[in-house]
Design goal:
alpha/beta, 3 domains, Nucleotidyltransferase, domain 5, 16 strands, Arc Repressor Mutant, subunit A, elongated
């Protein structure tokens, strides 16, 4: 059934005013009419509707020496909240933002090592705590996005290929978290969200073709091609850790974890460091720190790691032709690794590719989760129509409340 023209026109007007409020608040009705090109009557009708819905509130008056003042309007902080969650093998980060994109609070703590249902309880506890600490009832959180390692199965809500967090694969994470949090939960791969975080407010703004390669506990790849996130048929696009690079891909450990990840993930870096005779470092991050200080075994291992990452990156470049390669993750964003990877890539790739390091660092995932949660929150008010594609709402830059 065709949508009546009047309804489409009304939705277009509402989206246009909402977009202006996102980026120009506080603003008067007259100024809104001017910047949107809508009539003053239409603008006022939309504002009145938003006020009744609790999406907009008065925010003072204009000031001037001559003439009447006008009421200024802004998006109401009580209009709805978005929750971004970044679940890592070692750390869990949760951030709460209001309708206007103001980040109200962010909290990070070690991920519960027991995994599975314990981690889901931990997420629910942190979410409720953040809400109450910011005078917000948990029921006002209307959009929740969780970034998780591994592959999110779009058919049943389970998480697959996530060996670094135990007992998640047999749980319907979407259903369980939705029940615990009281709002629908959307799952997304953590590397995809880190990529979206860099696009929203990091080193990859205004770039349409990006490969984001993350190295930390594991190794993963996020792909943004021609302005769209690439997920693949089963949500497994970018599982670069399974490339047969760096060792025997048929070895049991390689088959379970991925050949490349077995070699260049944090455990692999530390294992190779000890095999090279290194005794000073006790973590993969310390291996990189020792390499920066010139310790021979660490320098050798970091060089090997950069070579393997460069080989994998060259395959990505040859197949997907990105404009830039972003290196992220606790190990991947290290500048000494980026320089070496760039050198390897420069010698192998069919054309030059700019290599950038993440500017958001460990926050990339939660920033990306917030960006998706905010988009979903904004679209909720317009019925999820096809106008979301025809007239996308632009996210404001994230900022503190």
């Amino acid at each position: 059934m065709a949508i009546p023209v009047a309804n489409v026109t009304r939705q277009l007007s509402s989206r246009t005013v909402f977009d202006a409020l996102l980026h120009r608040s506080p603003i008067s009705r007259a100024a809104l009419a001017k910047v949107t090109g809508l009539s003053k009557q239409t603008t006022s009708e939309v504002i009145d509707t938003f006020v009744r819905q609790g999406l907009v509130r008065p925010a003072g008056r204009t000031r001037g020496n001559v003439g009447r003042t006008a009421v200024l309007y802004e998006l109401s902080p009580d209009g709805g909240h978005a929750l971004g969650i970044d679940l890592g093998a070692r750390r869990l980060t949760v951030a709460l933002a209001d309708l206007a994109g103001r980040v109200l609070a962010e909290r990070s703590e070690p991920t519960d090592p027991r995994g599975g249902a314990w981690v889901l309880d931990q997420i629910a506890y942190l979410a409720e705590r953040l809400a109450r600490e910011n005078n917000t009832h948990p029921s006002r959180i209307r959009s929740i996005v969780l970034g998780t390692p591994g592959v999110v199965n779009p058919r049943n809500g389970t998480i697959e290929l996530a060996p670094n967090i135990s007992d998640l694969g047999h749980l319907n994470v979407v259903s369980l978290l939705t029940e615990k949090l009281g709002s629908a939960v959307v799952l997304e791969n953590d590397i995809n969200l880190a990529l979206l975080g860099e696009i929203w407010h990091g080193c990859a703004q205004h770039v349409a073709n990006i490969a984001y390669l993350s190295l930390g506990s594991g190794v993963g790849l996020g792909l943004y091609i021609n302005g769209h996130l690439v997920r693949g048929e089963n949500g497994a696009a970018g599982e670069i850790g399974y490339l047969p690079i760096g060792g025997d891909p048929l070895m049991a450990e390689s088959r379970e974890q991925g050949c490349l990840e077995y070699q260049v993930g944090a455990a692999g870096v530390l294992r190779r460091y000890r095999a090279a005779g290194g005794t000073v470092a006790s973590t993969a991050l310390e291996v990189f720190e020792q390499a920066a200080a010139g310790e021979p075994s660490a320098v050798q291992v970091v060089g090997q790691t950069a070579h393997l990452i460069g080989l994998a990156a060259s395959a990505v470049v040859a197949v997907l032709d990105p404009q830039i390669l972003v290196l992220g993750g606790s190990l991947g964003a290290r500048p000494e690794l980026a320089a070496r990877v760039a050198a390897v890539l420069g010698s192998l790739a069919p054309r030059p590719v700019e290599v950038r390091t993440s500017t958001l660092g460990s926050r990339a995932g939660v920033v990306g989760a917030l960006s998706v949660a905010l988009r979903r929150l904004h679209e909720e008010f317009f019925g999820g129509s096809d106008l979301a594609t025809a007239l996308p709402l632009r996210l404001p830059p994230p900022r503190a409340a």
